[in-house]
Design brief:
about 100 residues, mainly alpha, about 40% helix
């Protein structure tokens, strides 16, 4: 059976420190401390982004938000390039 199954490859970012790994997975899955999630869970009074958008979703954070947007947007999160890794480690706000 082993000759038919390739060895699984770890996902990008697997070697990141836990805090950066959690942030990366929140961006990849869309589940995390985004206001839309917190509001849905009854942990926030509004889903609005405090920087102006009607709803703070992962799409808003990655594609539009001037504060939360990673350096290379969705592409950087997907491939986890060097600049996005640096952003996750040092700059990324709590999301």
């Amino acid at each position: 059976m082993q000759k038919y199954c390739s060895k699984p490859h770890p996902p990008p970012g697997m070697t990141l420190p836990r805090r950066a790994w959690v942030r990366h997975n929140s961006l990849r899955t869309g589940v995390g401390r985004f206001r839309s999630c917190l509001y849905k869970w009854g942990m926030a009074s509004s889903a609005a982004c405090k920087y102006g958008a009607e709803e703070q979703t992962v799409d808003h954070a990655v594609l539009q938000c001037p504060i939360h947007r990673p350096p290379h947007g969705l592409h950087g999160v997907t491939v986890l390039d060097d600049e996005t890794t640096e952003w996750l480690l040092n700059t990324c706000p709590e999301i």
